[in-house]
């Protein structure tokens, strides 16, 4: 059976002072035995702070991107082994902001996922369609291509140690959430893609929903049979909101 995961994506927000308060509130709010998992994906410079403040707590931490390379002359890049050194459990790969603003295509996302797993991280691979694509009726084709690049390149077995996040681009940071039924329909497509290759994974692969998740809409999203948690952007910066979302999953 799948346990739910609520992961925060801080994007390029935070400061040492602000983080101290936010991480302290999360640590205190979760207690030690959490029924659902909770994680925060913070900017690279704050990973050491997250490690220091969250170690021994029920809150895991991770990064928002990783290099496809293991080491070498790649100025500005951060390797998966470096993230492990800082105690990361999770790393986002293929977030739509990176696909759109850093020209990351699906084969590169698959290579990043492989690099992350090789170092023992659990990648959260993000897929999702733009508004124009949804309006053209090609949502399933888009997310199938994005996930298919991972499955074709690396095999479906990678999802034993990876999480999928469905994040419709039109819902990210816009306040427009997919309805539970819209999200459930795409999650069904994604789960089917995995299950077609390995029926044994039907019950284990975790698929999160992301896109303007808030305390006020989390419960109805989590009630859907194929929604196994959330990837939360804006609301993850507010400890009250984020903890309420995590509670809704618990
Ligand atoms: C995200 O950036 O992954 C995200 C889901 O953002 P928001 O919750 O702000 O829409």
Topology:
Blueprint: E1 5-9, H1 16-30, E2 37-41, H2 47-54, E3 59-63, H3 80-85, E4 90-93, H4 96-101, H5 106-118, E5 122-127, H6 131-135, H7 139-154, E6 163-166, H8 180-197, E7 206-210, H9 215-222, E8 229-232, H10 239-249
Parallel strand pairs: 1-2, 1-8, 2-3, 3-4, 4-5, 5-6, 6-7, 7-8
Helix pairs in contact: 1-2, 1-10, 5-7, 7-8, 9-10
The structure holds phosphoenolpyruvate.
Short description:
The protein has 250 residues and is of the alpha/beta class.
Keywords, please?
single chain; 250 residues; alpha/beta; TIM Barrel; eight-stranded parallel barrel; 10 helices; 15% strand; globular
Explain what this protein looks like in three dimensions:
It is a single chain. This protein has one domain: TIM Barrel. The chain is 42% helix and 15% strand. The two termini are 14 Å apart. It contains 10 helices and 8 strands. The chain is an alpha/beta fold and 250 residues long. α9 packs parallel to α10. It has an 8-stranded parallel β-barrel with strand order 1-2-3-4-5-6-7-8, surrounded by 7 helices. It is globular. The structure holds phosphoenolpyruvate. Phosphoenolpyruvate binds next to β8.
DSSP, total strands? 8
The chain-level structural class is alpha/beta
Provide the CATH architecture: Alpha-Beta Barrel
User: How large a portion of the residues is in β-strands, by DSSP E?
Assistant: 15-25%
Q: What is the CATH class name?
A: Alpha Beta
Q: What does the largest sheet look like?
A: 8 strands, parallel, barrel
Rg (CA only)? 17 Å
Give average pLDDT, whole number. Answer: 96
Strand order of the largest sheet: 1-2-3-4-5-6-7-8
Classified in CATH, the superfamily is Aldolase class I
CATH fold topology? TIM Barrel
So what's the overall shape? globular
Helix content: 40-55%
User: What is the domain total for the residues?
Assistant: 1
User: Which ligands appear in the coordinates?
Assistant: phosphoenolpyruvate
Q: Enumerate the spans where pLDDT stays under 50 for 5 or more consecutive residues.
A: none
Order of helices and strands: EHEHEHEHHEHHEHEHEH
Task: Give the count of helical stretches.
Answer: 10
Compute the separation of the termini in Å: 14 Å
């Amino acid at each position: 059976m799948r346990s739910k995961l609520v992961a925060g994506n801080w994007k390029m927000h935070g400061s040492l002072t602000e983080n101290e308060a936010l991480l302290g509130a999360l640590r205190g709010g979760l207690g030690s035995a959490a029924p659902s998992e909770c994680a925060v994906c913070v900017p690279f410079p704050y990973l050491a702070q997250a490690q220091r403040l969250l170690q021994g707590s029920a809150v895991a931490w991770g990064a928002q991107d990783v290099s496809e390379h293991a080491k070498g002359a790649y100025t500005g890049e951060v390797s998966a082994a470096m993230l492990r050194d800082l105690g990361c459990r999770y790393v986002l790969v293929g977030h739509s902001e990176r696909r759109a603003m850093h020209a990351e295509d699906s084969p590169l996302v698959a290579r990043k996922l492989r690099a992350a797993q090789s170092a023992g991280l659990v990648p959260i691979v993000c897929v999702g369609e733009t508004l124009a694509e949804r309006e053209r009726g090609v949502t399933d084709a888009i997310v199938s291509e994005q996930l298919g690049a991972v499955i074709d390149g690396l095999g479906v077995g990678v999802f034993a140690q990876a999480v999928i996040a469905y994040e419709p681009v039109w819902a990210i940071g816009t306040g427009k959430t997919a309805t539970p039924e819209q999200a459930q329909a795409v999650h069904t497509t994604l789960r089917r893609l995995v299950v077609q290759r390995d029926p044994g994974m039907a019950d284990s692969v975790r698929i999160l929903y992301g896109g303007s998740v808030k305390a006020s809409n989390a419960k109805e999203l989590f009630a859907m049979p194929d929604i196994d948690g959330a990837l939360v952007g804006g609301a993850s910066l507010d400890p009250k909101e984020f903890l309420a979302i995590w509670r809704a999953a618990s």
